[in-house]
Structures are given as structure tokens and as C-alpha cells.
Amino acid sequence: MTIVDPSRVGSVIREVAQSVILPRFRRLAASEVREKRPGDLVTVADTEAERDLTRRLGDLLPGSLVVGEESVAADAAVLDRLADDGPVWIIDPVDGTANFAKGSELFAVIVALVVDGRTVQGWIHDPLADRTAIAAAGDGAWMSERRLKVSPEGPLATMAGSAGWRARALLTKAVARLVNQGSAAHDYLALVEGRMQFAHFRRLRPWDHAAGVLLHQEAGGYSALMDGQPYRPQPANGGMLLTPGRASWDALAPLVRD
Predict the structure, then answer these.
(1) Which of 232, 245, 229, 2 is closest to 123 using CA atoms?
(2) What is the pLDDT along the chain (258 residues), one digit of tens a residue?
């Protein structure tokens, strides 16, 4: 379901990344990084990129609302906008802020468009590689002219993926490799490009996952909350698992459940 021209949104994201985010990479002053709460960083690039994206995406779709990570940090009531029936943009201006702040290249911009509580379009932009993964419900997942596809189903012993520390002891004995990138966006890019086969997330903040889950689904993957329910772009507890298909989900789920 295409609500807005995906290339126009992609251009807006790219331009904001080039003008606001990339000039700060590895050039942040100490005064430009702070903790929102213990262990949770925000930089001037996060706040300025979200401000510009909020204005420009709102101009593309008059009457739309915006839920941004930093706006929610300032006022939790902003999350209530996700209950609106109309179009709502969900923005993570710099996913992987801790990586960005320490000079790691694993950061990205995530944008999703939600209508009537359902994610209908999603974008993940990797500023350093200057590439954007785009999905629209029913139209597939794409990187430029290349259609994105998850890996085919296979034995657990051949799979690589990410999971929290609680599950690692069991997973280490069952899968080929565990990955820790510190960026949900880069986990999703690895999933839809077939470089990683599974991911388990415990914290389901909508700006981290709304676009990525749609991309994964449109690339042929299977995902569900740990209680078996489908993901919705709302804060949730209990975790979520993404795999190439239902068989691998059923095999992995017992290993990652708390």
C-alpha cells in the first residue's frame, strides 16, 4: 500500500542525513552528547535530524502526525498519537546512537508510516553506505532496483543471528554464529539481505521496529511476538522473533524465551 512516493521520502531522509548527521560523525563535542537516562545517549545529531524530518515529512503528507524517539523522550504522551486513525510517521533519527557517539559505523535512520494502526511503508537508510531499503505493504522490499529476500529456511546449525544475553548460552550450542551490532536497523538490513537469518528483540520500541518488521515481511520472512501474536507498531513487552519461516521460528522460539 503506497500512501506517499517512497522515493521522495527516501530523498528527504538522505538529505537530512547528509546535512545534519554525517557532518557530526566522529566530530561530536563532549557538550553535544548527553544521557536521557542512565546508559541511553542522545546527541545533537539525533535532535536536529528529528526536528528536520518531522517538518519535512509533515509537509509531504499534510495532516499527518509524527512520533519521534526524541519527542517521546521529552513527552511520553506523544506515544498516544499511535492510536490515531490517520497517518502517523514514526522516526528514529539515529538508530545506534551509542555506536554513532563512539565513532562506530553501525548507525542508520529509520522511518515508518502507520495508518489505522498498521505499518504501510518503511525506510531504513544507511548514511555512510548511502543506501536505503524501502518497503510498502504488498509491494515487496527493495534496495534501489534490487528486490530484497530473506535467506531460505535451513537447519539451526547453519543460521546466524542476534539475540539478547539471556538467550546466548542456549543459542551458542544451536546456531552457527551470534551477532551483536548495537543497531536494530543494521540487524534488519542483514536479515533482508540474507546476511543474517534470525533476530530476537526484547525491547519493542516502535521507532526501532515498525519499518524493519514490514521490510522483513515483504522480503519473505516470518515474525511474531513471543506469544505468537503478530507485531503491531506499539510499545510492547515479551519480545519478538524474526526468522526466514515458521519452521525456524518454531525451532528457535524455545531457545530465546525467558
Answers:
(1) 2
(2) 789 999 999 999 999 999 999 999 999 999 999 998 888 999 999 999 999 999 999 999 999 999 999 999 999 999 999 999 999 999 999 999 999 999 999 999 999 999 999 999 999 999 999 999 999 999 999 999 999 999 999 999 999 999 988 888 889 989 999 999 999 999 999 999 999 999 999 999 999 999 999 999 999 999 999 999 999 998 888 899 999 999 999 999 999 986
* Residue limits of CATH 3.30.540.10 in the chain: 6-147
pTM over 0.85: yes
Amino acid sitting at position 81: R
H helices of the chain, where?
Answer: 6-16, 44-60, 69-74, 97-102, 165-172, 184-192, 206-218, 246-256
Fold held by 6-147: Fructose-1,6-Bisphosphatase; Chain A, domain 1 (3.30.540)
Q: Which fold has domain 156-256?
A: D-Maltodextrin-Binding Protein; domain 2 (3.40.190)
